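Hi, can you check this record?
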Amino acid sequence: MGGTVYVVVGAQYGDEGKGKVAAFLTMEGAIGHTVRCGVGPNAGHGVWVTLPRGTREVECRHVPSGFVSPDAKLLVAPGTAVDPSVLEQELALLDEYGADIHDRLIIDGRCPVVEARHREVEGQGSYLHAKIGSMASGCGALNSERSLRDPDVRFVRDVPELTSYCQQDVSALLASELRAGGDILLEGTQGFGLSLVHGPYPYVTSKDTTAAQCLSDAGLGPSWTVRVIACVKPYTTRAGTGPLEGENDPAVQHVVEPEIRPGVAVGGHRRVGNFDHELVRRALEVNGASGLAVTNIDRMWPKDQGKVRTDELSPEARAFLERLEETYEIPVMLVSTGAELRHTFGSA
């Protein structure tokens, strides 16, 4: 029969809580292999977790959010770019917090490497920053070079300080795990609305962001048993420029979004708009979503903060969840009502 591939994707413009959902599923489902897919270090996932040195939010740009499960192998897919300087900082921070994950981390040697010149190219002009809202991580410049088959592109296997992490073929390892009946989780980044293919060009990222792309990043074909969990919030946010349905509508002006941390995404504050039903409908259709994970219930309805059962939620929140299931004809699998993993309920 084989195991199941769980794919966590965003159905809006990113920041839908994919990291928390991936961490929760890894813990609750005892998933043995969790895989970071996506563009690369241009997207950060925040996870609130209890570590030996306290409970805190950890921002991950390379390490999969499933690191919270002490038994999970942590893999970076061959289709995902790696910035060695970002990875070094991330590993040092995890060490400082008491989460030593070095022995569990496996990076595919075929991952392309973001270098200083890529960041410099993106930071030189005002177009990407001012018009598109790019964080100038270098991923776009790297992807451009790779598309042109530039001989100067390097891969993780070419970086001496990373060779200890790339002793295994990630695609082959995942296929072997699935054949043995083990489940794996692919953690996508950003959101459907930022897809280079399906988003509102040019206000997009430098690559597709769908479940199909996650499978391609990991080197897995569609014939495996795949379940796609699409993450949404009861409203819509967007970092940087580009269209946003219902921006400044009074119905969502009470929503308080935290300031974006520099280096995790575009700095400043996220813009807030209404829940965009058409965007989500297209996202669920293109991704072939099996179910929904609804996050940030507490930011939309603060009185629901920390609730852990559907029947505890406010009438407004329950009505929203019911409307999602009726409208899209797929189940709400997970609900998040706060920052910490314990503020999550449901199952995939």
